[in-house]
From TrEMBL:
Alphabetical UniProt keywords: Cell membrane, Cell projection, Cilium, Glycoprotein, Membrane, Transmembrane, Transmembrane helix
Domain of life: Eukaryota
Protein name: Transmembrane protein 231
Gene: LOC113493316
GO annotation, cellular component aspect: ciliary membrane; ciliary transition zone
Record bears the keyword Transmembrane: yes
Listed InterPro entries: EF_Hand_1_Ca_BS, TMEM231
Length: 311
């Protein structure tokens, strides 16, 4: 009749030595290597620390009804300006009486409580002796992130267009994008309001002459901003004495980069460290078995079924 293994367990053989001995020094050295080497290898192989993290969110966008539309003509001294701030433009920008109508609509397409599309329409009266050669449209937006990295700022949507032939209408379609040159700092229970101030209002108060370039130069120096990715644009030609400017800006889900917290870094690094530590533990354990069973260092061998004499 055959025999079957029903139960088994390992017999523990111990090796003991005094505190100040070569065997104790060897064991301490291997223990330190077991703890340190996984960290060194993981760190040198790169990717051990989580330097960056990202999330996706559709921001809350609202138009603040602050805008600046500059239509330049073939005469450098003559420009048509539409704006919402008194005293915003300097002496070289005038003729606001040619801005006949302005319309804006905010659309929540999927009924989730967030604006998905912004529609802007401007109607201009063009003098017969003038031809529009370019337009610059600056729109002020209220931008908010509310999930992982709360952020509240005033941003701009800038549209530029140059015309070769006299235009009678211009239509623009684009997506609003979040642009950053550094990671957002994520602090718990704190809203980042570093750029939550009106850019156009500050220039209206200071009274700059070259207002468009000054606004863009200042906005360019910000660490976080918004810009428009052009999808389609079309202009209708014809000198009809009027011009319609229509811009549709879609607000999609955006990618946001931020600096991870210490807990996120530990959650990322800990599995890498443990996986390497298990390998090094197995290797150094084999070395210990070889050294002590071959008595390369003096240590007392304790076998469970033998009586030990401690004399």
């Amino acid at each position: 009749m055959g025999l079957y293994t029903l139960f088994s367990y390992n017999v523990e053989v111990q090796f003991k030595s005094c505190l100040f001995s070569k065997a104790m020094l060897f064991t301490l050295f291997l223990t330190i290597l077991t703890l340190i080497l996984p960290f060194v290898v993981a760190n040198k192989s790169r990717g051990f620390w989580l330097r960056t993290q990202k999330f996706y969110e559709q921001p809350n966008i609202h138009f603040t009804y602050e805008y600046l539309l500059v239509a330049e003509s073939d005469d450098p001294s003559y420009s048509i300006v539409c704006n919402s701030m008194k005293g915003l433009v300097g002496s070289n920008l005038r003729n606001e009486e040619h801005c006949t109508e302005f319309q804006v609509h905010e659309h929540d397409v999927n009924s989730d409580g967030k604006v998905d599309l912004l529609d802007f329409k401007y109607y201009l009266d063009i003098p017969k002796e003038r031809t529009i050669t370019s337009i610059a449209l600056i729109l002020m937006l209220d931008f908010q992130l509310k999930t992982i990295c709360p952020l509240h700022m005033q941003s701009l949507a800038v549209i530029n267009r140059e015309f070769v032939t006299p235009p009678s209408a211009f239509k623009y379609l684009g997506d609003l994008q979040f642009y950053q040159i550094s990671h957002l700092p994520c602090k718990p229970n704190m809203i980042n309001t570093k750029y939550n101030n009106s850019i156009l209002f500050n220039y209206a108060k200071n009274g700059h002459n070259n207002i468009v370039d000054s606004i863009l130069d200042t906005y360019f120096m910000r660490e976080v901003s918004t810009l428009i990715n052009t999808l389609y644009s079309r202009n209708q030609n014809g000198q009809t004495g009027s011009m319609q400017v229509q811009a549709s800006v879609r607000v999609p889900e955006m990618e946001i980069r931020y600096t991870p917290s210490l807990m996120q870094e530990l959650k990322w690094a800990w599995p890498q460290y443990l996986s390497l530590a298990a390998v090094f533990y197995w290797i150094f354990n084999k070395i210990r078995i070889f050294v002590f069973f071959n008595r390369l260092f003096m240590a007392r061998r304790i076998v469970p079924w033998k009586k030990q004499s401690w004399k």
